[in-house]
UniProtKB/TrEMBL annotation:
Name assigned to this protein: HTH-type transcriptional regulatory protein TyrR
InterPro entries according to UniProt: AAA+_ATPase (IPR003593), AAA_lid_NorR (IPR058031), HTH_TyrR (IPR030828), P-loop_NTPase (IPR027417), Sigma_54_int (IPR002078), Sigma_54_int_dom_ATP-bd_1 (IPR025662), Sigma_54_int_dom_CS (IPR025944)
Domain Sigma-54 factor interaction intervals: 213-449
Organism placement in taxonomy: Bacteria, Pseudomonadati, Pseudomonadota, Gammaproteobacteria, Alteromonadales
Record bears the keyword ATP-binding: yes
Chief place of localization: cytoplasm
NCBIfam families associated with the record: HTH_TypR
UniProt key word Methyltransferase: no
Length: 532
């Protein structure tokens, strides 16, 4: 029986109450004392609440005696256990001797299987026992005084084990100071899927639906409709397009619209890492695979993206060795960690992208043809910005609005969003944009950052675009067979050159300065080629 005794705040009253209990020879299992309240867990066969009240009636200051379900410490422990049981990841608390103090319900998934002739054990049966009796590969030796993490595999499933030491402070009366001592450890087992989702959220926490892809031109509308159909098919997708056309944006929209949207989306640029680092990033490595390898090994992106999508950007930059290893993986989705011997099975979707002509690379023997057909089950070809000028107004206004917000936040100002004049829009539409949407975004951010208020005019754009004019694309190569003579070839070149540069330098004097000739010559050539 558990009772709470309310009393007045009188010195010695708690001792008198406990003395009464001792005199009756009742079995006191637990006692907790808080100001004006004494909580008692007592056991006795014939004990009743009325008998306790009768015994305590002689103690001056006792106000009431009531039955309770739990002592305060038991209630706190119950609430803490309920909190732990809501955690989806297994959590185990052990003392400094490696004995299990507490576990949550999720630890059931780690519970070892027992023989059919033995009774099935519950996680409660393991309390007070060594951790290695519950998990054979984990013992007291791996517990340290510092927080560590390592990869472990339990019942065929990979986890990242986070070990956090529990530090207790002890006061020393003689030394007049406090010392800290490790009294145990908390073990948190994070599944690869959970870890992958966390990394995915860190990579990007924005909305990446097809609605976030800006554009109403015919080409981009067809791309969005095609991509939405592809999202429903759980097959590899190859996205091609020039640098800056938004290949990763399409890949993320594909994932978000698919049945795998709740699982991780992880991306890696294959041109950003050397071969050996890219291999370990993709496939992970086993413990001791090489000098400096983490103890217990490290999972790769394929493992972390379990159930989700892995985006391989710039796939053409992958070395021949990794191309062969990736091909082997795509055949049956099995792989091994670097330096490992265990065969692992992945459940992921591969989406790849490249700005290079893979067909040309295949003919040059620098990209495997068999890998190309594995990756190119479904294909999306993104148009460059110069082929979707109908979207320029939408894109420009969006980038100007985003840039204005960033500038206002950094300067703690409230400057209204500048507007784009018709002449400025025409100037943007006349530029070839070799860097595509990414270049447009950077140019407009620079213009907004330099803007002192008011509309963005052509003159404002020219200050930034002049720096980009050196990279202006002057159209396709000249058709050799169509050339009649030197004069016609020169005239064709002049027409292309002036047609693309004139919107950037709308006066003859500015264009003459850009080409280092007299303005009279520029005026003559503009008239000659009927460029206005």
């Amino acid at each position: 029986m558990r009772v709470v005794i309310e009393s007045s705040d009188r010195i010695g009253i708690s001792q008198e109450i406990l003395a009464i209990f001792a005199k009756q020879a009742w079995n006191l299992k637990a006692v907790e004392i808080i100001s004006c309240f004494t909580y008692v867990h007592v056991e006795y066969a014939a004990l009743t609440l009325s008998s306790i009240r009768e015994c305590l009636a002689s103690v001056a200051g006792v106000k009431s005696v009531e039955i309770i379900n739990l002592l305060p410490s038991e209630q706190r422990e119950s609430h803490l256990q309920a909190l732990l049981d809501k955690m989806p990841e297994p959590i185990i608390d052990v003392d400094n001797n490696g004995l299990i103090l507490a576990m949550n319900k999720a630890s059931n998934k780690l519970k070892p299987s027992t023989a059919s002739i033995e009774p099935e054990l519950t996680i409660t049966d393991y309390l007070g026992k060594p951790i290695d009796a519950f998990l054979g590969q984990i013992n007291k030796v791996i517990l340290s005084n510092a927080a560590t993490s390592q990869a472990v595999t339990i019942k065929g499933k990979a986890y990242i084990l986070d070990i956090s030491p529990v530090v207790s402070s002890h006061s020393s009366t003689l030394a007049q100071n406090k010392t800290e001592q490790v009294s145990g450890s908390v073990l948190l087992f994070r599944s690869m899927n959970t870890l992958g989702r966390q990394i995915s959220l860190m990579q990007s926490h924005q909305d990446h639906s097809f609605d976030s892809i800006i554009g109403e031109s015919k080409s981009i509308s067809l791309i969005k409709a095609q991509s939405q159909r592809f999202a429903e098919l759980d097959l590899p997708v190859l996205i091609s397009g020039e640098t800056g056309t938004g290949k990763e944006l399409i890949a993320r929209a594909l994932h978000q619209a698919s049945s795998r949207s709740k699982a991780p989306f992880l991306a890696i640029n294959c041109s950003a890492l050397p071969e050996h680092l890219l291999e370990s990033e993709l496939f992970g490595y086993a413990g001791g695979a090489f000098t400096g390898a983490q103890k217990g090994g490290k999972p790769g992106l394929i493992e972390l993206a379990e159930g989700g999508c892995l985006f391989l950007d710039e796939i053409a930059e992958m070395s021949p060795y990794l191309q062969a290893k990736l091909l082997r993986f795509l055949q049956d989705l099995t792989y091994r960690r670097v330096g490992g011997t265990k065969e692992l099975l992945a459940n992921i979707r591969i989406v790849s992208a490249s700005h290079q002509d893979l067909a040309k690379l295949i003919s040059q023997k620098t990209f495997r043809e068999d890998l190309y057909y594995r990756l190119n089950v479904l294909s999306i070809d993104l148009p460059p910005l110069r082929e979707r000028m109908a979207d320029m107004n939408l894109l420009a206004n969006l980038f100007i609005e985003n840039a204005a917000k960033q500038v206002n936040n950094s300067q703690q100002a409230d400057i209204p969003k500048p507007k784009l004049t018709a002449q400025a829009l025409s100037l943007l539409q006349g530029f070839a944009w070799p860097g595509n949407i990414r270049q447009l975004q950077n140019v407009l951010f620079s213009v907004v950052a330099l803007n002192s208020g008011g509309d963005i005019c052509a003159e404002d754009l020219l200050q930034v675009l002049n720096k980009h004019a050196g990279n202006q694309q002057l159209g396709s190569d000249i058709d050799i067979q169509a050339i009649k003579d030197w004069s016609s070839a020169q005239a064709e070149f002049e027409t292309k050159l002036l047609t693309q540069l004139h919107p950037l330098f709308p006066t003859t004097r500015k264009l003459a300065e850009r080409l280092s000739v007299s303005h009279n010559k520029i005026a003559m050539k503009l008239r000659e080629h009927d460029i206005k």
